[in-house]
Amino acid sequence: xxxxxxxxxxxxxxxxxxxxxxxxxxxxxxxxxxxxxxxxxxxxxxxxxxxxxxxxxxxxxxxxxxxxxxxxxxxxxxxxxxxxxxxxxxxxxxxxxxxxxxxxxxxxxxxxxxxxxxxxxxxxxxxxxxxxxxxxxxxxxxxxxxxxxxxxxxxxxxxxxxxxxxxxxxxxxxxxxxxxxxxxxxxxxxxxxxxxxxxxxxxxxxxxxxxxxxxxxxxxxxxxxxxxxxxxxxxxxxxxxxxxxxxxxxxxxxxxxxxx
Length: 260
What we know:
- By secondary structure, the chain is mainly alpha-helical.
- It has 2 domains: 4-58, no CATH class; 74-249, hpI Integrase, Chain A.
- The chain is built from 11 helices and 3 strands; from the N terminus they run αααααβββαααααα.
- The longest helix is centred in the N-terminal third of the chain and has 20 residues, at 24-43.
- The chain is elongated.
């Protein structure tokens, strides 16, 4: 056993290296815990440096495989929406869930959505860059159904500016609220998986170009050179796509939309 004053960077690396690639999440938490302890030690005046910091370059490279989320087949999403509407969940939860499905947005983007981001006359939701995974602002065309959801959400206004406020006034829905709802209703799907449902529908049931569907998900496509020249966000084409998606999910609709 070593005194905290004697722990070196090499000691921390010796602990982390064997599990860094095998169990990266566990290793990350170990490193975080060591760092927290060392910060406390520094605060006590027992040492001046943190051996858990600045060691990333010395650790093995971790190959990040894409995470596959459980997703419902797009043919089952309408039934899921109907089950959510009929559930005993809070109105804010039900509206947030339907809005998430209709816009193919990420959970955090929807739960943190604010009225100031909405331009109702233009039928646009602009998610600010700081709330996007890509750190780039993202314009979302709002379908007629999505606008209906927003109109219903006006009755939930608690003065916080949040479109879908949580149970505690001034706070958004928690990150587990929507996932818990899916589990309670018996659907074997992750919330993020509804983006996959949308993407599969676009691929199998429409002739919208791939780049339009990827733009709807705020995914960056092509290499750096291609992106430097292709600066359009394909907004008007995406507007048609999101309206088609909304109609696909509407079991009562008899309308058709030209897809592409």
